[in-house]
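Structure ticket #2291
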Amino acid sequence: MNKFMKRLLPILMLSLALSGTAHAWWSDKWTLRKKITIDTSAAGGGIADPIGTSPVLIRLADFNFGAAKEDGSDIRLVAEDDKTTLPYRIEKYDSLLGEAFVWVSVPNLKPGASTTVWLYYGNTGDTTVPGDASTKPIYDADTVLVYHFADKIGEAATDASGAGNNAEHAGMSDDGALIGPGLRLDGKTTVAIPASASLAWTDGASMTWSAWVKPAVLTPNAVFFSRRDGSNDFLVGADNGIPFVEVNGTRSPVGAPVAINTWHHVAVVADGGKITLYLDGVSYATLSASLPALTGAAKIGGDASEATAGNAPFTGELDELEISRVARAPGFIKFAAVAQGADTASKLLTVSEDQAPPASWLSGTFGLFGVILKSVTVDGWVVIGILAIMSIISWWVMITKFFHVNAVQKSNRLFLDAWEQVAADLTAIDHDDTASLGDGAGPRVQRLIKKSPLYRIYHIGSGEIGKRMAGGQGLSSRSIQAIRASLDGGYVRENHALNDGLVFLTISIAGGPFMGLLGTVVGVMITFAAIAATGEVNISAIAPGLAAALVATVAGLLVAIPALLGYNYLVSRLKTVTSDLQVFIDEFVTKMAEFYSTPGES
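Resolution: structure written out below.
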């Protein structure tokens, strides 16, 4: 048995290793995934400067909305290692229109390279997963304001950065902006941003401001964003389509104008004594100035001071306003412009077709039962593993005992054939001569006979007769009783040898169902504990757990039932062998009393 286990264990370990490494799939609860490739090389986004960790917009148009939950809450974003979940937020999810915008924080984006992100969906049941990052912020602590303008009509813009810098009042909503809903500015309506500690700028501080703008008309000195405190001011706008940044009355140099009714990414980065204006991710103009100290409110779509002569409100659309209290790197700015642009994003980001989980040997071989097996928890596999060991041992005992009993009965028949030829000399079979064993008793037959339990019992009696008959006298009744006792002792030892190992079958018969029941009870407890933790009672979530828990009971019965049948079969065969032993002992003692008793004794 030891040799068998030594050979079997490496095979089992190899099988488990191959089944675990055959494919990578983050969670079996999710049935579909898409491969998102972010390519910053020259063939993709063409970004050569360092980027770092950045929010990435994923547009889902070719998406199977029918396989996901109605609100898209089963969407999960997983890193390239297919293990680490990434923080994400859904800006818009419309299954009727077939449109969704998902923001995900991707760490350590590198220039001139490709990064893979996995988007999983298709889980209409339990979506709880250990280590899930779906509720973590996607913006870093230096981002102090993010307006997606995706709020309900009539509601003020909500700050998605987590800093709580919500707008003071609602503007005009624009459902057809660059990224879902946006802000429409008609030259009259503006949106105020209240003052806050996180939005306060000190003199010479670092800062990054960015937004997407779409001018409807070319207006002189149109202001997108403004802040004023006394003599200090900060403005971002466009003069007849020429973007500018103005600090304390000093404006950036003039560049090429932008066309009306086209979206453009405008960013301003203040870094010490230099302020850089970016247009569509490329440096557009620089201003030798420091960011002034500003702690007051800000205004979107117009000048913070209505009395300022020469400045005009902005007419057009605005989307994705973002403010950070650090100077973002040029690569970060260009990545945002390329990744969020409707025309450029398709080169930077590619979304694959849906992928289904690779068919495992469980699901492929056993169908629905394989699906149930994949839902078994760790504790269930521990119980099933113990039951598997019990099953292997019990089958090994049954198989080896079966062949052993066959060999015993064959050798017993050969011995009995030789025994029938014994006359007055009961020790003749022990003479090792072929004649005493009958015709055709070659070396092989002799070896088989000497493996017989009957022969071993006979050998004990023959030896006892030889010792007591050395003086040539007969056997007294006491001697016959003593030889009988020796034969009975041999019978007990042979009986023990024949029944050796059957205890493993009795353990499997009695312990298998109880072990399986233990696994089922623990599995049911875990299932209901998970329901209590999530607070969701869903038949789709409960059924797999309960079915998987019952697998342990099935495994226990699969161990016990064969063991029970094999045990009863072997016991009946062994009873025949032990009966033959008892009959032979009685016959041997009778013949011994007949041929070797002392004259005058009956």
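Closing remark: The longest strand covers residues 99-109.
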